[in-house]
Amino acid sequence: MGYMADTTARTLRLLELLQSSQLRTVAELADRFDVDDRTVRRDVARLGALGVPVETLRGRYGGYRLATGQRVLPIMFSSAEVVAVFLGLSREQAASSEPEIAAQTALAKIKRALPTADAKRIDTVLEAIAPSPESGGVSVDPGVMLSLADAVDRRAVLDLRYLDSAGIASRRTIHPYGVIAHSDKWYLLALDTDQQEERTFRVDRIRSVRSTSDTFAAPQKSDPKQRLVDRFVEADYRWQIVLHIRSSEDQIRSHLPASVARLERSQYARQRPQDSASAWHRAEIHAQSLDWLPAVIAALGCEVVIERPEELRSEVSAAARRLFASAEFRFDVNPRSE
Which residues in 27-42 are b (16+ Cβ under 10 Å) and which e? Predict the structure, then answer.
């Protein structure tokens, strides 16, 4: 190899060689770069000054190697890019049938390759962003995500520009409590200081975030993820539905998750002594429409009693008639010709 005069290029090439082998001798490196031993030692010292953990082995078979368990990527990621990688791999982890083998291994490798300061910052991001197996789906700006996560960690007041579901833009001053993944979307749980009310914001609808110098005290409440679920359940939608369901909690939850229905043991069994040993549950649901509920009730495959509203009885009756008509219809594949 010809003489490599560019110090930066030579140092990066040295890093690449150290990563690709358990050990590189001084003579081998000097020969590859067409430099003397002294230059090799200076290049190794330069890597050390950059935070690359290079070990020196003395003796006849000595040389240089990266510290055990350490690998350093010769790539510089911006903070936003690192967050984007972690979010992408988190989505892959949620979708993979073998997340321990694929996504988690990749996450571990990237984190080990980061400088200590960046690795700590990623820890902060991951701690601030509540994990969820349902995360993924709607893409978000990684720069916005990093700003939100940093603000949650530092309890920093944020100036937020937001676009709601109706396309109306607004500017809010908020106290960010948590960033949570739920049902394929990311949400920010925060106190809207103008309204003095805890609100939920879709992260993909946030247009800009600016951190202020002000801070706020952490609220003495339950964890942000549980509060988000509670907000979905208690949302002020058009219909308040109450069902009494005779089934196990696991079976009910497979069709009515915690973010959809509030579930508790029902008093309905006391009204029917013959069913006193049955597992009756009361499900309270807030919904904007009723048309999706007949299919859910049918899918439960058990006794369901509608307490309210009356309009849901009509929806279920109409769905039952359609199903009955489908069951009664006979399709003649060989119609007789006249």
Answer: eebbebbebeeebbee
